[in-house]
Amino acid sequence: MLKLDDVRVSLAGHTVLRGVTFELPQGKTAVLVGRNGSGKTTTLRAIMGLVPLTGGSMSLGGTDLLAAADHQRAALGIGYAPEDRRMIPAFSVEENLLLPAVALNLSKEVKGERLSAVYDLMPELADLRKRPGGSLSGGQGKMVALARALVVATKAILLDEPFQGLAPALALNYARTLAKVRDARGDLALLITESSPQLLAGVADRALKIERGEVSETTLAALGH
Amino acid sequence: MDFLLPMLVDGLAASALIFFIAVGLTLVFSVLRVLNVAHGSFYAVGAYVAVTIGGVVMSAGAPQWLSFPILFLSAALTAALLGPVIERTFIRFTYGKPEAVQILVTFALFLIFEDLQKLVFGVQAYYQDAAVNVLGISDIGGIIYLNYQLLLIALAAAVVVALRVMLHHTRLGKMIVAVVADPEVSATLGIDTRRVYMAAFTIGVFLAALGGALASPNSGVAPGLGAEAIVLGFAVAAIGGLGQIEGAALAAVIVGIARVLAIYYVPQLEPVAPYLVMLAVLLVRPYGLFGAATQRKI
What we know:
Shape of chain A: globular
Strand order of the largest sheet of chain B: 1-2
CATH architecture of chain A: 3-Layer(aba) Sandwich
Distance between the termini of chain B: 38 Å
Structural class of chain A: alpha/beta
Largest interface: A-B, 26 and 20 residues
Strand order of the largest sheet of chain A: 6-7-8-3-9-10
Strand content of chain B: under 5%
Oligomer: heterodimer
Number of domains of chain A: 1
CATH class of chain A: Alpha Beta
Radius of gyration of chain B: 19 Å
Helix content of chain A: 25-40%
Order of helices and strands of chain B: HHHHHEEHHHHHHH
Strand content of chain A: 25-35%
CATH topology of chain A: Rossmann fold
Number of strands of chain A: 10
Largest sheet of chain A: 6 strands, mixed
Number of strands of chain B: 2
Number of helices of chain B: 12
Largest sheet of chain B: 2 strands, antiparallel
Shape of chain B: globular
Structural class of chain B: mainly alpha
Distance between the termini of chain A: 27 Å
């Protein structure tokens, strides 16, 4: 469903992605593993339209992604949680969660449905709903970023280094939530970047290894876990 | 002490007009991150458009009260015609560029507007004071005020409230706040940042043009209006902290009152009063009254 074919990206004169090719079907979860600087984040940013491609093509459910401007990718159903969370500090948690619904001009019913679906999956967020987005701890922020991506997503979710900087207990908690999301949302393709994929062993169906901007198929077992 | 009330009213009325310039400048800066030198031109164009339309309609024998909605209509017309076009043709090319480039481009735009005004309207002054006359005068404590001046104060206060409500309770406002905080994440959440930039710029043009239109019945229109407006607007925006709407409001009040105080006590200092205030504030708070070095807010 999410399909990248020979995607090439250069940033400031350096080739970052040199022909990234993979396919991720609906309902499947892939973890994109690689060292810092291998092109994990750039792959996700390219899918979101935040960096220009120098070559290749991308599609989602048969729709050409390159024909859609950056802001239209959310409307196509891709939810994205960047590594550094990036909440709007002036908004409350709930306003942050509803921001994409407001931007996409969703009807009141759909807004309500998506919000309650998110609170069902992550009940701890319901207690935080009135808190300012700027006051969240790292672990809370990661959860809210995942929830915000879920509000957008109807086809795919991209999570950039979700465990980065989380204390072990919080990382475990996040992994459990992710497993719940996986069970509840069989309609979504999940693409998760991670430098240490142990925590995703129970969630991921596939492992993709990215090295110097090139992706190859591997297994979690082959990665030593 | 007999001076206190008249001084306050005069000061606040002056503040109201300054506020309209500074608030648009500060809004555009906080959303687009562009210091727009041409902002004063929109003030001047708003004034010229108001005087021109007002002149035509009044001389056609229209009722006097009509001069009042014409001021708003002129500002809306100026914003609708100039806002999107100027943003698309000039301003957008300066996004993310060094300040020097932004200032060169917008200063060039300012000079173009100055000459265009002389080309279209000539160098003579225009007056159209029907709006002041129709509102009449009030007698407060034995001193006569133009009701129009009192109305300006109320309108400025209304704009502060309207902007607050717009930013926090409307779809566009929420998108503006999000783009100010993080344009990139906003785009990934479905916000068309290009349209938000255009809308915010157009609102800025509207506020400047409204300031010019509202100033015209009392002070007329003549060449040089734009330059005067932008210099004062910058001073007030800097005092308030660039990007701060409430800051601009408070700074406008301080500058307006400082000017009037100067007129009452040291008339020679009147032209420099706003800049003395700016100097004093920036010495103590380099980022302005409401500004912060790292955090920005709208």
